[in-house]
Amino acid sequence: MPQPPFPHAAEQQQFQPQPPQAFQPPAQQQSFPPPQAFQPQQQAQPPAPQHPAAAGGLGNPTMVRSLSGGRTIRIGRALDNDIVVSDLQVSRHHAELRQLPDGRWEIVDLGSHNGIFLNGQPTRRQLMGPQDRLTVGHSSFVLVGDQLQEFVDNGAVTFSAHHLTVEVDFKGGKKTLLGDVSFSVPEKSLVAVIGPSGSGKSTLLRALTGYRPADRGDVLYDGRNLYRQFAELRSRIGLVPQSEILHKELTVRTALKYAARLRFPGDTEAAERDRRIDEVLYELRLDKRADNRITALSGGQQKRVSVALELLTKPSLIFLDEPTSGLDPGMDREVMQTLRGLADDGRTVLVVTHSVAELALCDRLLVMAPGGSVAYFGPPAEALHFFGYETWADVFQAFENYPDHDWAGRYRNSVHHQQYSANVDAAVTQAQPNALNQLRPPKPQSWGSQLWTLIRRYLAVIASDKGFIALSLLLPLVLGAVSAVIPDKCGLAPCASNGRNDVARLILMVVAFSACLSGSANSVRELIKERAIYERERATGLSRSAYLMSKIIVLGAISFLQGGIISAIAFKVRTLPAEGLLLKHLPAAEMAIGVILLSFTSMMVGLAISSLVKTAEKTMPLLVMFAIVQMVFTGAIFQLFDKPGLEQFAWLMPARWGVSASGNTLDLAHISPVVIVKPPETGPYDTLWNHSVGIMFLNWFMMIAISVGLAFAIQRFQKRHEPEVMQKG
Ligand SMILES: Nc1ncnc2c1ncn2[C@@H]1O[C@H](COP(=O)(O)OP(=O)(O)OP(=O)(O)O)[C@@H](O)[C@H]1O
């Protein structure tokens, strides 16, 4: 196997890594005064006896309360609780610790939004013993003798990965995307992950955040297994993916307001949320930009807004996937300095990056080698020396030129490994046993409240996009007008001469095509363009069905309006039959119902396409294909009925039912048959076009049924874009 040349290999032999130096950041320009920690009245009877769990990362208790007096202790955010936890993740009246007649203690969830966790597992009501750890928001409680001790996760937590391995099925075998990755970072660290394209950086990020747990290996958060206790620990993790997780059309403050509504418990007041938003805006130096649209900010500022969003819930760990890609060197530095500040303020920050210019700001550097293994982990200042090259371009080129070299082995046998990674395996023994199943995390908001917030946010996004509003109005106006220019002799009514009107079905076909196009055009990009936002929000507790329903309601209303506009133009200019089937005096309105339902069903098809595709570019060809297929299968061009196979296939086409629904009013079967027969009375006729109330209902019903079927299908398609732990529901 060819060995890569290591130009400074001799130096490297003798090189002794320096003990890690604490990074001295430049003086902070602004430092937000930390919120005052609540000091409960009943506090202070130290020294407190130590709970066994304290050794597993709990540290010193922030509060100790004697249990000898009370039989019931209520925990919550409101000031009337026995133990007040001033944390927006906690409900006003969150949980109660109740003493049973036999002296044992039971913990009861009082209907909190974010739930309670006993030893990392969600529970509603459970006995709590001296070995148990109860978690409410960022606070953990343990029973020690006749005392209840509280420990607050203030962000200073250790974090480690242990032998993470990710494999996927590939060409009939297994492909390793991540191979035995281990490292450990101390609290308040900024860690950079670099590596050539395809070296598994994103895979590592997904494994570390629990989005796609590793097939083998563990991630420990302060000594606790993240995968087994994901329901509890997920709220301590912030993730800023590469794609935007905010609606850029909104102002910074509005975007954060909606995010806060979705992430904080339903019982938080607007003033509380606003206060927290002000805090994060100040911390990230965005307070002067709060009322600017996100699109009007620089790339670096936009990234800081995404970080601000994640900071709302005070995570202890923040992960970022290439936050500086596409930014100029100045902004790159600005973002990295912001991350440095976040780590110094007491969080651990891990950033995947392609940029190597600002690595010196980091405490640790993880270099991934092709094949998903660790080529280096240690201080950034020593990394180039370790590889024996002058520049990172040389190192990456060596990765490229010597793909079979055992880069991981080289690191494993180095003094750097001994110094910076050897303690990783020791930490595993401190991991708590994880006997319980991984459960789906609770939702911070009720379904209805999420739906309402999502609808309002969607309307706000639409209202800020004047171009979309103009196009949504223009499209049906133009399409309706196009159908109106088709010349006719007798409008849509039977001609007096022969009782026929052969152009009627063509007019309905064009109207149906217009409804299909405008309905699906509204929605076809909707889910794909928001996929990163959806994925992130889903991980923080967003309801899949509430999200989909918000889209259906808002887009449904737009489709309704568009179908109405098309019908108004198309039917207004035509002579119609004197009477409708159901709405006797309003035949045009009756026909419009069919067009509106078709527009709605097409909108659902658009959403289905949007949930299926991998990139937004693929939506356009599919949209055109959908519209043309619909036109062909309206039944107005060639005979579909009494054609086995073809007829049944056409049942799947919304336009088939749409044309039929409007055609029922006109008695299209007889005035405009697609098969010319002589004498006309003998048929055969398309029975779906018959002048019959029952058949009109059938046509309406079928469009509704297709829409419902599509809604279920979209739900399933959306699942594929969710973090694995959320796919169960
Ligand atoms: N489902 C899959 N099946 C087969 N190979 C996959 C699959 N998912 C990812 N890969 C491959 O695994 C490797 C690691 O991908 P990953 O996205 O983690 O790399 P990366 O270092 O983040 O790359 P980049 O810097 O380009 O974003 C890549 O070669 C990718 O093609």
From TrEMBL:
Coiled coil: none annotated. The keyword Endoplasmic reticulum does not apply. Keywords: ATP-binding, Membrane, Nucleotide-binding, Phosphoprotein, Transmembrane, Transmembrane helix, Transport. Gene3D superfamilies: 2.60.200.20, P-loop containing nucleotide triphosphate hydrolases (3.40.50.300). Residues 1-65 are annotated as: Disordered. InterPro entries: AAA+_ATPase (IPR003593), ABC2_TM (IPR013525), ABC_transporter-like_ATP-bd (IPR003439), ABC_transporter-like_CS (IPR017871), ABCG_transporters (IPR050352), FHA_dom (IPR000253), P-loop_NTPase (IPR027417), SMAD_FHA_dom_sf (IPR008984). Residues 163-396 form the ABC transporter domain. The chain crosses the membrane at residues 467-486, 545-571, 591-610, 622-641, 693-714. It is a multi-pass membrane protein. One of its GO terms (molecular function) is ATP binding. Pfam families: ABC2_membrane, ABC_tran, FHA. Residues 73-123 form the FHA domain. It is found in: Membrane. It comes from the Bacteria. Its main location: membrane. PANTHER family: ABC TRANSPORTER G FAMILY MEMBER 28 (PTHR48041), PROTEIN SCARLET (PTHR48041:SF139). This is ABC transporter ATPase. It comes from Kitasatospora cheerisanensis KCTC 2395.
